[in-house]
Amino acid sequence: MDRLNVICVDDQREVLSAVLQDLESLADWLNIEDCESAAEVLELMDELDAQGEHIAVLVSDHVMPGKTGVELLTEVSQDSRFVETKKILLTGQATHTDTINAINQAGIDQYFEKPWKAQILVEAIRTLTTEYIFDVGLDYSDYHQHLDQNVVLKRLR
Asked: Response regulatory domain: from which residue to which, for each copy (predicted)?
């Protein structure tokens, strides 16, 4: 069974902890990683890729020191190793322009404003991970019980 990773990044530890707590229900089939900066994310992604692991979803805050979430997600979207990685921007401070840039440049798949609804975030990650599995051609049978069945049915048609 291929190892699937979800990486969450936020420079505020309390926000990051809340996201991780909300995603606990996914931890029995997804490896949930946390980072506190864009630089830490990029380093982790390099390590996971070198180990042959999959980065299915990247959840990023926008306003962070050093590199914004939009800059991070744009950089990831331009890296050929991670073209299929799904991207979520989770922020309370993005401007309208930031949001447009996130969609146009970073190719984000979902946008959530803080405070988010835990169940909606969990379902978005389940859906995006299901899409990732099909997009990269992984054997979905090992994960079938956890996947978004609507996406599975659509992809099998």
From this structure: 5-129
**Tell me: the pLDDT tens digits for 5-54?**
999 999 999 999 999 999 999 999 999 999 999 999 999 999 999 999 99
Q: Let me know if 40 is exposed, middle or buried by CB neighbors in 10 A (0-12, 13-18, 19+).
A: middle
Measure the CA–CA gap between 16 and 87, rounded to whole angstroms: 16
CATH number at residue 88: 3.40.50.2300
Residue 73: which of 53, 50, 94, 47 has the closest Cα? 94
Residue pair 23/6 in contact by the 8 Å Cβ criterion? yes
Instruction: Measure the CA dihedral 39/45/51/53, to 10°.
Output: 160
Rounded Cα gap, residues 53 and 43, in angstroms: 14
> Domains in the chain: how many in total?
1
- pTM, to two decimals: 0.95
